[in-house]
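Lay summary

Proteins are chains of building blocks that fold into shapes. Our project writes down both the chain and a compact code for its shape. Here are two examples, one after the other.
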Amino acid sequence: MAQLDRSAKGVYLITVTPFTDAGALDLASTDRMVDFCLEKGVTGLTVLGIMGEAPKLTIEESRTFVKQVLARVNGQVPVIVGASAAGFAPMKELTQSVMDLGANGVMVAPPATVRTDDQITAYFEMVNQTLGPQVPWVLQDHPVATGVQMSTSVVIKILKNSPTCVMLKAEECPGLAKLSAIRSASDKGEFQRISILTGNGGGLFLPEELSRGADGAMTGFAYPEMMVDVCAAHAKGDVERAHDLFDAYLPLARYEQQQNIGLAVRKHLLYQRGVIASEAVRKPGPKLSAQDVADIDRLVRRQTKRLNDLG
């Protein structure tokens, strides 16, 4: 499969990293998870993201997991690997390793240590040098997780100066005005058009983002078919259908996006759906209470009813 490029669109699902109850990598569940995502119609996969517990993996575990995912995908869809790191040496090492394994690109977010506009742009100039001219990469703008506020002008400057940056993962919240401004700038020819996929956990603003010029979603949710179906309906011009589908899933997507327990909610749902064998989150990590589980069960029942009513 060709490397990631600026024409990418659809749903690139951010995957979880399955573990056993004892905390080891669960490669059998990894295979089931890949199969599940492909069956639900995702366009691509993104692994070792923030919700993939990447900081909790050793470098060898990261390679093992990526290798397993790539083998199971077997070229059916593109795979992007999170390569953000505290330093450029580990970023380069992981990038070279996963690209050699067959990854289609990597994703990089700014570290919490960069604050000013000049520091941010200088950092990404070094990212370009580190990754080299052959590696397509994704700029991740996720200030809630990174603590780094990248203004619209800074993002545009990075994109202008980064010929191998082919995608923006836009997940500032709220970020609709910023998304519109970036898309407008490329439409005016200020820089070459890139793919824009949005995050905002479970696509909490997905229909609006699509209407603002996003090419799809790159985020996680235990029901990836929501994002697939919403993007498909919107692409066909059936915007009302896209909103109706989105509304049916929204209460559960919102619940899954709670700070602290969101990953535990997602893994619990994937366990319930038979995708992974354990809902374990590596330490330090959250655990659900009986009340949390009761909330989730109620939301799933209500979601199922609303989807049946929609037909």
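And here is the second example, written the same way.
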Amino acid sequence: MAGKKLNGTVIVTYRCNARCTMCNRYKAPSRPEEELSVETIKKLPEMYFTNVTGGEPFIRQDLKDIVRELYKKSDRIVISTNGFFTDRILELCREFPQIGIRISIEGLEQTNNEIRGLQDGFNRGYTTLKKLVEMGMKDVGFGMTVQDRNAADLVPLYLLSNQMQMEFATASLHNSFYFVEAKNIIHDRPMVAQNFENLINELLNSNSPKKWFRAYFNHGLINYIYGQRRLLPCDMSFDTFFIDPYGDVMPCNGTKDKEVMGNLNDQTWEELWSSPAAESVRRKVRCCDRNCWMIGSVSPAMRKYIWKPTWWVIRHKFLRFFKKKKYSMYELKIVRDYRDGKVTKEELDKLSTCDLNAVINDGLSEASKEQLAHKTGEEIVDADIRGQME
């Protein structure tokens, strides 16, 4: 592994102040005393890209120290946040103007506030984004998790981001220990896919090559919501990793149960990365059938297998000379089969990771679980934030 830079995601906390309908992480927070220390961050390897996420990363008051340390390791850092802690975000960005910020916005105002369960969440997030742009921050944007409830807002939100000259990242519903959820599912696949198709055509219409490749990513999301095999191989745990608040290094955040390659609090990176436990996890990844399509695993795959998305982009840019509409979701055989009645909704539902009978492993330590014996996760985090604000 000498000299090879990795792609890393650092989950700095499981504490969260949002109440998202598709993610129950807020019900299962980590204890601040157990969360990743700067000393452990120092042990991370060289990375070409690092995503800092949570929970809500800005709940951590020492996030600046963590970012300062990560910049010694990583070429590029992007923080995923709900945008609620505006002052903390602006303060961090003043010290690190090159950092990326992605604020989760799940649709236009009413839809967003219903899904994220944050009072005035849309305005808080939108105001934070505007202030970042006014500051001259270049790498800022929205992130949206598309589902039945907000699919109609997909293109309007993209157009809003475009108007503000911002990045626009998409995802769809996933189930895993990380989201403390097993019941997420798209109910009206053709409707959601139609909105993705509209977005893909907007992206292909732009003059930005980056957006053309984003179109390919969204094409993969249609394929994913129809329960099909990934368009690109998954190499999580080989050149990409996640580390959780307890120092456990994992292949990704998409597995049903938490898979641990080693613990960075107790090991050096070299020991951990080449350990028998890490090899065992890699064997599982090679047989994984969850077919996730999240930017954390797809972005490195697109870099590695660049000819596949490139050929797709060339084909669809070339088609614009012959067809008014460059892209149709019916290019995917499964979408045609569903339309033609060759497969049923029940069959597609079985292909998703939705499991109504699942016992959800939340990935918490024993000490974090103990604190939930007497209080809910919401009560714990609300008290924590109140204490910080005093």
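What can we say about the second shape? Residues 190 and 335 are 8 Å apart (CA to CA).
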